[in-house]
Amino acid sequence: MSTTTTTLTQDVSTSPGSADQYYGKLRFIPPGQTPKASPHNFHLPAMSEFGDVRLQSLIDMRPVPTTSELPNAPEGTARLPSHGFAAVRHPTTLNSAPYTKDSWKSPALLKQFYIPETEEMVKQITGAKNVITESLLLRSEIWSETDALAAHAGHGDKAEATKEEEEQTSEATALELGFPQFIGFSPTTGGASPAPKVHLDYAPNGARTHIRRFHPMMASAASAVIRAEEDLLSRGKSLRDDYATSGLGPRWALFSIWRPLKAVTRDPLALGDARTFLESDYVPVIVKTPDLGIPGEKSTHDTESYLAHWSAGQKWYFISRQEPEEVLVIGLFDSDRDAETVAAGGTLHSSVDLPGTEAEEPRESLELRCLAIW
């Protein structure tokens, strides 16, 4: 059994112009420990595995630039190519009247307004030619070890439904099996909870598994990438070393666009500056993932993700009291950076406990995950 420790790091940097210094608890894997994978779909290992708890200084990303201001923002502003993430002020149609916070829980409105507006923003920031939304994940509960994700689309931790229950949830099931996926929108299982464990959703091998196995339409959208990778593999080449320079397939990346639905007063998202992590900080782990988009199919596949050890040089960022018009663009994988770093353009992140906020209402947030192709 691991021993929980709480340590104040020595990095007490603040963002330019900030008079406040923030601290929050982040949970890491203790040195020398090999974490045990969770038996639950989409879930990281149990909290008991994250025994190294650190009270970490947090750098505030205010002021948050707009998409047009970001290229000329002051030196030190977080950017995808350097930090692995960026903060952007991005108002959308649903941020204004007549729409309300509840509008964000309407799949029809999200398809009509939010998805196309966000895809256009990602194109503007990254230069990608095509952006394909794969899923929207709604988080609206206090953290629990096993939440709505485990029972998504009838997979995993869910008893067999009666015929009447299946009819009542047929619309929700269609959304959960469709493309893009709507996760955490089920009226029966509710929203998901924050993820208070330092992680990166996809190691490079996990990203490649993801585009093949997440959903048949995802594999179709990534078909040029998959063909090029299979060609290289058939010739004994290394995808990490040779894909970007081969010219056989397009550059591709995975991103998460994280937006609160109300001002964040607890469990904000903290992001690690990718330049400040050691290769030895990354801890691989398997996440059990259902095969989605295939009616009646209840099989799963293993996706490789990263957890992390703490090290003294790490720098962590967040947005203080983040508002619904402010989004975080989070790198999860970039084929052009696969040969550079173990994280391949992705950044470690976690919800973070701010001392004194335990009695605040649950944080509500929406993550749009997408595939970008150049």
Order of helices and strands: EEEHEHEHHEHHHHEEEEEEEE
- Unreliable stretches (pLDDT < 50, length at least 5) are 1-18
Q: Structural class, from secondary structure content?
A: alpha+beta
The value of Rg in angstroms is 20 Å
Mean pLDDT figure: 88
The coarse overall form would be: globular
Fraction of residues in H or I helices: 10-25%
Largest sheet: 6 strands, mixed
Question: How many extended strands?
Answer: 14
Percentage of residues in DSSP E strands:
15-25%
User: Count of helices?
Assistant: 8
Q: What is the total number of structural domains? A: 1
Distance N to C terminus? 46 Å
Family: Belongs to the asaB hydroxylase/desaturase family.
Protein name: GA4 desaturase
Region (Disordered): 1-24
Biased composition (Low complexity): 1-15
Q: Any descriptors?
A:
374 residues, alpha+beta, six-stranded mixed β-sheet, disordered N terminus, AsaB-like, GA4 desaturase
Fold blueprint:
Elements: E1 5-8, E2 22-28, E3 52-60, H1 80-83, E4 85-89, H2 107-126, E5 130-139, H3 163-168, H4 170-177, E6 181-183, H5 204-213, H6 216-221, H7 223-234, H8 239-246, E7 252-260, E8 269-272, E9 282-290, E10 300-308, E11 316-318, E12 326-334, E13 349-351, E14 365-373
Parallel strand pairs: 1-3, 3-11, 5-6
Antiparallel strand pairs: 2-3, 4-12, 5-14, 7-12, 7-14, 8-11, 8-13, 9-10
Helix pairs in contact: 7-8
